[in-house]
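Hi everyone, sorry if this is the wrong subforum. Our group has a chain we'd like a structural model of before ordering constructs, and none of us has done structure prediction before. Sequence below.
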Amino acid sequence: MPQIIIYTAKFCPYCTMAKKLFERKGVGYTEINVDAEPGLREQMVEKTKRRTVPQIYIGERHIGGFDDLHALDVRQELDPLLQV
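Answer:
Right subforum, don't worry. Here is the predicted structure as tokens:
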């Protein structure tokens, strides 16, 4: 199973929904809360070229935010990514 990384922030409903989707799928993830330390948000922006959270990686693939993750799930394209 590939490593899953989710960049999150406090009080972010989309972050919560992304984490719950992975939990329903029974897969673990690494959460990086960009509010936890100075510089983490800038690090996320440099890596993803986006300022909003969540930002999700499955392995080396940048998925994007929750809407992108949900769209993959609806199209039944998420499970194969999680099985790699």
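For your construct planning: Residues 1-25+52-84 form a domain with the Glutaredoxin fold (CATH 3.40.30.10). The CA atoms of residues 16 and 53 lie 10 Å apart.
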